[in-house]
Amino acid sequence: MAMYSGFSDGENHEAAARRSIPPASSLLWVRNLRRYIGSGIGLGSEDSMELETKKILLDLFKQKQQKSAGVGTIPSFYKKKPEEGSISDRVQRLAKYRFLKKQSDILLNADDLDTMWVYLRENCVIDDSTGAEKMNYEDFFQIASICTEQIGAKCRRFFSPSNFMKFEKDESGRIAILPFYLYVMRTVSLTQARIDMSEIDEDSDGFLQPHEMEAYIRGLIPNLAQLQDMPGAFVQMYCRIAAHKFFFFCDPQRRGKACIKKVLLSNCLQELMELHQESEEEVTDHEQAENWFSLTCTQRVCDMFLALDKDMNGTLSKQELKEYADGTLTEIFIERVFDEHVRRGKTGAGNNREMDFESFLDFVLALENKDTPEGLAYIFRCLNLNGRGFLTTADVHSLFRDVHHKWTEGGNYELCIEDVRDEIWDMVKPVDPLRITLADLVACKQGGTVASMLIDVRGFWAHDNRENLLQEEPELEAE
Which of 134, 257, 260, 413 would give a disulfide with 207, using CB separation of 3.0 to 4.6 Å? Predict the structure, then answer.
């Protein structure tokens, strides 16, 4: 055939190969590679290549720094989240799933905790004076070996020397086994809660939005003994009310998201977990009523809102809210609540402004938690009549005037407003003797009492009769 003419078998192939493959020195990638690694000396040395790579990266970093400094640009602090369904999004979700799965696998389960408690009791000593079960460091180390052998290496981290030193020791250097076991249980519980919340955190930003918090609480309901009898129709409302307390205390700026770390460390989660206790044997009716997350309390809040909503339009007017707590709150406080914490109507007119259920939950939480910084912050915005960030003697006089009016209407003895004002100043002891700030109310540890005296005639009555009330408490406990 013509295409093979002029060539012999062996020589022709070699000649063709020489013509089709250019010299190595003429290839662009070869020249670039040689330029990158140097003159070719030490091509097989990994250390030389590593040093050269670091040098190049350092030069690039310095060039970037000089360029940024020259134009005065602001360094990037925001990275756009990957689009849903993209490869980056899928990789992120897979990495998150594997990480949480790994953390869950190394966590102690209920059987492991029971086994640890058995070995703690079997290898401890009884204190002759108190009868408490204790262990010294040798016992602690021995129990660690037994638990590691029977349970696995996942319990080893609890038996570190630093953990032993965290607990109070007696004169013989021994610690009680019960506080140590409770520490292990709480650590496991908080870790499990963080894993569960992280799974629900859709965008993996470390914050929970309201619907995510409600989903977390909904998942807990089957495991909480005191909520076993909850009607199915009430579950959604319960989750809404329960989640609102987390956001009241963990989202003070009202950004609509609560930091998971802050939620885990808050008293709210501990209060919610108390519902694990059996209601009939371990919890009194009073404790159930005091716990915001109990079925009794959430139903009470709903019934309270429905009772106040006379026109049944789903919101509360000023006149309807005045009936809260049997009408003991002052009118000026109700007015200020609507000014500071209730959104305006669509037309912007004051008459159309009414309180929805979410705002009502904030209102109840603030009044029932006046001793907390969050509750005081809510109330102080209402007391701050002129928006200056502090209260003067004239402000206190104006606020207490309504309390004095209700006090005299109730048939009580005549009050001197100036004496009450001076008493409040003595209770708070503000840094600036001429003004009271929110920081002063929080620091004095009596901010809740002061707030009650200024907004609620019943709160002032309780303060005025505090000595008699203290004497009655031991009598009620004895009965």
Answer: 257
